[in-house]
Amino acid sequence: MSETRWYKITPGDSWFFCDSRSANAGEDQSDLQSIFPPYPQTVVGAIRAALARSLGWERGNWDEAMKAKLGDGFDDVSPLRFTSPMLAIKCEKSFPQRELQLLFQPPMHLIGTRHIESGDSGSPLPTFDPLDWLRPSSDPFMTDMGSIHLPLFPVSGDADNRRLRTADDFFITTSGMQSVLDGNKPDKTELIHQSRLFAMENRIGINREADARSIYSPGHVRLFDGVSLVIGVDGLSDDIELPLTFPLGGESRQAVCERLRQAPVRPQSRSGTCVVLTTAARWLNRWYGVHSGGSATGLHPSFGSKVTTCAVGRPTRIGGFDSRTGRSQTLQAYAPAGSVWWLDESVSLPEDTWCLSLGERTSLGYGTALLAREPVK
Question: Both 281 and 224 in a single domain?
C-alpha cells in the first residue's frame, strides 16, 4: 500500500463553488451562491488536472501513460484514491504536535441549545451547548413506512430541553468528534460556528462576450486566517507532485497547495452501534441508504445487523461538470454529512482502518463514516 500524501489547500484570494443551480451562458445568473466546503469531485478534478499539467498535458484527451497514473474519466480515478476535502484550523493546545485539526459536520443525534455570546471584539458570537442525544424510541410508531422506531428528543418539562436543536451550521473539532464516538458529550468549545471560519461575499461580474453581454453575481467564500482545506491522496507515483498553485472552483480562482509533514489526527472508534456519516454518501438503490427496520447490509456488505432507526438530513443534490466532454452531470440526491444510523447490534472496523467507506464513489471521498458507541446517559 502506497503512502497517503496529505495536502493543505488555501485560497489565493477567495473561492467560488457554485451550488446545484445551473450556470450556463445565456441563463439567469443574478444570484449564484457558493457551497462550502466544496463537493469532493470539485477538488479531486482540480487536483487531477494540476497533476496532468505537471506531466506536460495542456488540452485534449490524456495518453495511456497519463491514464495509468491519474485514471480515466469523471469517476474512474484508479490507481488514485482521495479523502473528502475537509475543513481544518490551525492547531492550538489540543494537538501541540500537529499542524492542523480537522473539522466535521456535527452528527445529527447530538442536540443542545443555541446562544449568542459576546466575542472578543464585542461582536455577537453564536455558540452551541451540547446537552443530550436523540435516541431510538422504545416502542414503534405507525407511519407510512409501516411500524418503525423513530429517533426522539428527550421528553422533559425543562425549558432548555424544549429548545433543543441540532448543530446544523456549526462544525465540530476532531477532539469533539472523538468524544461523540466515545459516547460522551463534547465541550461547547469544540463546536465552532461557521461565521468564525469563513464569510460569504457577493461580487458583481460582467460577461463581455461579443454576442451576449450580461451581468452575473457570484457569491464568493473567503476563509479566515488559520482556516484551510485538507485532503489526502493515495496512489501517487514518486515522479509527480502537486504544484504550489493551481486553479480551483468557478472562475479558476487560485489555490495555494502545501504538503503536510504528517497526517492530521483523525477521530476513530473500533466498534459501535451508531454509524455516523462524515461526508455525503449515495447508494445505488436508495440515496438515503437504509430506512428504519431495514437490513444494515444496505449500508455496508459486512454489516449483519438491522437498522433500528436513522436520522438522515434533507438530501444534498450534487451534480458536476465534466471538462473533457464539456457536459454537466445529472443532479443526484445524497445523504448529507452528519446523518446517523442506529444498529441493533455492535459492528467493528476492519484491522488498520480508521473509517468505513459506504455507498458509491468512495474513491473520490464520498461515503466516509465512523462508528460511535451508545451515548452515556
Answer: no
pLDDT at 1: 43
The C-alpha angle 166, 155, 315, rounded to 5 degrees, equals 30
Q: What are the tens digits of pLDDT across the range 74-120?
A: 889 999 999 999 999 987 654 445 678 999 999 999 999 998 887 66
* C-alpha to C-alpha distance for 70 and 64, rounded to whole angstroms: 10
- 103 φ/ψ angles, rounded to the nearest 5 degrees: -120, 145
Neighbours of 204 (CB within 10 A): 8
The per-residue pLDDT of the chain, averaged, comes to 87
Whether 246 and 296 map to the same domain: the answer is no
- Give me 115's grid cell: 446562544
**Boundary residue ending a domain (236, 259, 282):** 259
Q: Structural domain tally of the chain? A: 2
| Structure confidence by residue, pLDDT tens digits, 1-27 | 468 999 999 999 999 887 766 555 555
Mean pLDDT, range 205-225, rounded to an integer = 73
Q: Number of C-alpha atoms within 13 angstroms, CB side, residue 309? A: 19
Residue 60 pLDDT: 82
- Residues β-bridged to residue 190: none
Q: What's the rounded Cα separation, in Å, for the pair 272 and 270?
A: 7
Q: How many CB atoms lie within 10 A of CB 78?
A: 14
Q: What is the pLDDT of residues 364-376, one digit of tens each?
A: 999 999 999 988 7
What pTM did the predictor assign?
A: 0.90
Q: Which three cell numbers stand for residue 133?
A: 442525544
Q: Which residue segment(s) compose the domain that 35 sits in?
A: 5-86+197-259
